[in-house]
Design brief:
The chain is an all-alpha fold. The chain contains 15 helices and 2 strands. It is 74% helix and 1% strand. Helix 2 packs antiparallel against helix 3 and helix 14 runs antiparallel to helix 15.
């Protein structure tokens, strides 16, 4: 029964989170405009359904197999933090109620801090990844700081003079409140921001400390999380360049990409902890760097050539020509493969020097093997390339002499 308990708890929590996500989606659908935009659909199905289901599903797998690994429990907190039917219920109150009942006060109070279980575990996952424990007991203060900030927020926000929904545009007087709103928007936010920044920097620093002390397998696990975190940071940065008031197709696509980058985090954690095709991460990172740089260079060449040629054609003929687009596309097609090879060589030379040198040595030996006819020279070249690429303590070559 002891072995079955974590499994039952894990999948019970997953079922509860799934039910909460479905309820949230049902409550969210009537509020969608007709017809809904891509942004509305991504917000409804991506944030409300996909993210909690994926996080809770991966968390249940980890808890069921490694119940002592805190990463699984932290991911389950994130899933339940995203699922918040209370916020959707409060949307049906467009105006401030005239009578603040105890039940409505509890709903508003819970809605005020329900986002914390979705945010704080994100800060703590790098601290506990991948073993489920901090790099050393000296890092336990970070977890204590997070718990302390959580309790402090719950207590102090209970006594603000006004209370209201997070996603609403109204507030009402808090019957037990005595802390002015100026304190909430001033000194409290400064102290709170410093605490959050401390949590973030400390957790990320602990991950790099763990990486320096780790062996090859654990380093590969950490690379998976860093790769997913980099994608998330890049997509999160894109959202700052978009207007929050315009539900355009571009914003919908960026939000869709942002949801996929969030989903990459639990998927990367699952691959790292369960060690499925773990060492493919180096190839994925290399390919990502290669095609990201290649795409940027080709886009720069394309738009630069379009602007330059359109300017020249416009000065000569006084009008725009579609031939410029065709010529720019042909230039991109011609440059693609040579530029890809140059970019790949640059990345391998700068970031994967050991692998780059090994590939060069093997290519050099392959060329020599095609042209060399003397067995003694070929044997020397073979021993040299094995020693250079694999770096064994000792290498020797035994050849069977064919009897005549």
């Amino acid at each position: 029964m002891n072995r079955r308990s974590p499994v039952m708890v894990a999948w019970g929590l997953f079922a509860a989170c799934l039910a909460g996500a479905v309820i949230s989606l049902i409550l969210n659908i009537p509020g969608l405009p007709a017809p809904p935009s891509l942004f509305n659909l991504v917000e409804a199905f991506g944030w409300t359904l996909a993210i909690p289901i994926v996080f809770s599903g991966v968390a249940a797998l980890i808890i069921a197999r490694q119940s002592g690994n805190r990463v699984g429990w932290l991911m389950m907190f994130i899933a339940f933090g995203v699922v918040s039917p209370g916020s959707l219920i409060l949307r049906y109150l467009p105006e401030a109620p005239t009578n603040l009942t105890p039940g409505l006060w509890l709903l508003l109070w819970f809605d005020g801090w329900s986002w914390i279980p979705a945010i704080f575990p994100i800060f703590l996952i790098p601290l506990h990844f991948p073993t489920g424990q901090p790099p050393s007991p000296r890092w336990n203060w970070v977890t204590r700081l997070a718990i302390g900030m959580w309790l402090f927020f719950i207590i102090i926000t209970s006594f603000f003079k006004t209370i209201g929904p997070l996603e609403g545009n109204w507030t009402v007087l808090n019957p037990i409140g005595f802390i002015p709103d100026t304190v909430a928007e001033g000194a409290f936010m400064i102290v709170w921001g410093i605490g959050l920044l401390t949590l973030l920097i400390s957790s990320v620093a602990s991950l790099f400390v763990r990486y320096r002390r780790a062996g090859d397998r654990e380093r590969q696990q950490i690379k998976w999380l860093l790769y997913a975190g980099t994608l998330f940071a890049f997509d999160y940065t894109l959202t700052f360049f978009l207007s929050e008031n315009e539900f355009t197709v571009i914003r919908g696509l960026v939000d869709l990409l942002f949801v996929f980058s969030i989903l990459a985090i639990p998927l990367a954690i699952a691959v790292a902890i369960f060690r499925y095709r773990l060492y493919d991460i180096d190839l994925i990172i290399r390919r990502t760097l290669q095609y990201a740089i290649l795409t940027g260079l080709l886009a720069l060449v394309y738009f630069g050539s379009v602007v330059l040629l359109q300017g020249l054609v416009g000065n000569l003929t006084g009008e725009q020509s579609p031939l410029v687009i065709v010529l720019s596309t042909l230039v991109i097609a011609v440059l693609f493969n040579p530029l890809r090879i140059r970019v790949q060589d640059f990345i391998d030379h700068r970031f994967y020097r050991k692998k780059y040198s090994a590939e060069r040595a093997l290519a050099k030996f392959a060329a020599k093997a095609r042209d060399e006819v003397d067995m003694e020279n070929l044997s020397t070249a073979l021993l040299s390339v094995v020693e250079e690429t694999m770096q064994p303590e000792q290498v020797s070559l035994w050849l069977l002499e064919k009897k005549k």
